[in-house]
Amino acid sequence: MKLTLKVWRQDGPRAEGRFETYEATDVKEGMSFLEMLDVVNERLIESGREPITFDSDCREGICGTCGIMINGQAHGPMRGTATCQLHMRSFRDGDEIVIEPWRAAAFPVIKDLMVDRSALDAIIAAGGFITANTGAAPDGNQIPVPKPAADTAMDAAACIGCGACVAACPNGAAQLFTSAKLAHLNLLPQGQAERWQRTEDMVETMEQYFGSCTNYGECQEACPKEIPIDFIALMNRDYLKAKLKNRKLIGQVFP
After folding, report:
1. Do 87 and 77 form a contact (C-beta atoms < 8 A)?
2. What whole-number percentage of the chain has pLDDT above 90?
3. If we measure between CA atoms, which residue out of 21, 22, 26, 20 comes closest to residue 2?
4. pTM of structure
5. Taking the domain 117-253, which CATH number applies?
6. Partners of residue 69 on adjacent β-strands
7. For the chain, what are the domain ranges?
8. Which residue in 108, 120, 169, 243 has a CA-CA distance of 20 to 30 Å to 250?
9. How far is CA 203 from CA 119, 181, 220, 232, in A?
10. Whether the domain at 3-111 and the domain at 117-253 fall into the same CATH topology
11. Each residue of 127-179: pLDDT tens digit?
12. Residues in CB range of 182: below 8 A, 6 or more apart
């Protein structure tokens, strides 16, 4: 295949960006999208030009670093697929492909297609973990967990933190990411001790960086792991409970 690529180039966070056009030739249908960009970069380097900067790590759809906008869609045209798992058979010979970084105020561009996702890390640092000292790991069947809760927690844990939900949302909201990270801990017995403080801390940290959710639903459509917006409803419910329970707890400690 021969493709025309319109790629966003930006030398740094404060530099003025622009689109540049490249021809991608001899593209094989079995290539992944990132492999195609690798080939384009090899040719740019051979011609003495600056290669295109983009995030890439696992190339197995589990690390979340590969996210870019492809023809205005987060991760491209295939539903439930990360950019690194998107294959060129999804395009046709002669297509023009527009490639951009995530467009969100919370994700400033570092260079070209690479953005700073540290705002998501701040949400995790606020409470996306368990600190209770539980001793040695218990046997797998020692703590009974209802299967619906275990299955739902596993679905939430599928979130790879790529930021597609934020990039696709007209408000730049991170409710889907935050709710998934909360649910996979809050639904399990091990997460109950810190459930309410975790919820309050993570939600309020999220609100410092990201916009508000107004139920567009674009987040679940863009998510490469197809995480549903049902988790946002669970998060909102837990947040309301957390504000009440944490206030009562403070009243007991400081009467």
Report:
1. no
2. 87
3. 26
4. 0.92
5. 1.10.1060.10
6. 74, 100
7. 3-111, 117-253
8. 120
9. 13, 11, 19, 11
10. no
11. 999 887 767 777 767 888 999 999 999 999 999 999 999 999 999 999 999 99
12. 128, 156, 198, 199, 202, 203, 231, 234, 235, 238
Its CATH class, for the domain covering 3-111, is alpha beta
Residue 181 CB partners (closer than 8 Å, separation 6+): 123, 124, 128, 156, 159, 202
Chain segment 86-97, per-residue pLDDT in tens: 999 999 999 999
Residue 11 one-letter amino acid = D
Distance between CA atoms of 91 and 15, rounded to whole angstroms? 32
**Contact of 166 with 211, CB cutoff 8 Å:** no
Mean pLDDT of 4-18: 96
10 pLDDT exceeds 80?
yes
Which amino acid makes up residue 226? E
Query: Residue 36 above 70 pLDDT?
Result: yes
